Amino acid sequence: MEIKFIKREKLKEKPLGNLGFGKYQTDYLLYRDYKDGKWEDPIIAPFENFSYNPSMYVLHYAQETFEGMKAYRTNEGKVLLFRPLENAKRFMRSNERMCMPVIPAEEFLICVESLVKIEKNWIPSEKNSSLYIRPFMYATDIGLGVKASKTYRFVIICSPSSEYYKFEPTRIYVEDYYVRAVKGGTGEAKCGGNYAASIIAAENAQKKGFSQVLWLDGVERKYVEEVGTMNVMFKIAGKIVTAPLDGSILPGITRDSCLKILKSFGYEIEERKLSIQELIEASKKGILEEAWGTGTAAVITPIGELYYQGFTMKINNFEVGEVTKKLFEHLKSIQFGEFKYLDWSYEVK
Ligand SMILES: *Cc1c(COP(=O)(O)O)cnc(C)c1O
Prior knowledge:
Elements: E1 4-5, E2 28-35, E3 38-39, E4 43-46, H1 57-61, E5 64-66, E6 69-73, E7 79-82, H2 84-97, H3 105-118, E8 130-139, E9 152-161, E10 170-174, H4 192-207, E11 212-216, E12 224-227, E13 230-236, E14 239-242, H5 253-264, E15 269-271, H6 276-285, E16 288-295, E17 299-308, E18 311-314, H7 322-335, E19 345-348
Parallel strand pairs: 1-4, 10-11, 10-17, 14-15
Antiparallel strand pairs: 2-3, 2-4, 2-9, 5-8, 6-7, 6-8, 7-19, 8-9, 11-12, 12-13, 13-14, 13-16, 16-17, 17-18
Bound molecules: pyridoxal-5'-phosphate.
The site of pyridoxal-5'-phosphate (PLP) has 14 residues, from strand 13, helix 5 and strand 16.
């Protein structure tokens, strides 16, 4: 694999002020086409619109997968990625599930690293901001027959981004009608289709004043699965409880990192089914101590309130809990290179 580079004539102006999330695009993108059963060489080119035939498969049947990662600037000016091999491996699994060609993990990493190296001036230096990296792949065959495409495009775009949300407690609506995923479906693949199906619930919840929904399992609508774009964890009577990865949940890298950190802190972890009824009971008994979401974009999102069928569970008096805060600070200090932990930081040189 050899990466071609097409230089821009003139670089863009960098945006000032609040960057938001995903709003600005950098100078370049990387793309790599798949045809005749193999991947062509990737090209790093000026960020421009793509032009397409409206019959392109992905526009009709959503054969698409993606990843989400960040590049962080350390105080010394180094550029770090956080556990990027895990993203590479998950992307392979998502693509297998969606009948799409796989990019070997090492090649995925080289693509991400090469683009980030060129775009490193776009990594913001404001506190808690970073360069969000979005690798994705989609079907590019032309036609309307329902089958796996024979051609694909892999793309990486980058966006300088501020903190996703303010680090403060959120109100979450427990969805009791719509479901996100079922075992055997695509819940454990990171694909756009999962989101297309779930937007309606998030929209309804937002109209009622909640920031996101908590999904229950798709069969009994009884067990807690995950929150919007995040995995979710609870502290109940001192123990950390989270749903197991059993086919309908997205295996978050932040989730895995949090569990490892919490274990190192000495907490007892239970990856098990947790019913909404058990949460309500725990809340009534006063042992539902903390709740938070985990994901690359928002890192850790404190949950201050869960609403389920007329019942409101207030958590920790709608204040950020101690473990939630400790976890957030610890994870950030690893991601921003202030603290070295295992081999989780990967320097882009
Ligand atoms: C990406 C994603 C997550 C979080 O995964 P991370 O690897 O921690 O960023 C959780 N749930 C869903 C549905 C996701 O798409």
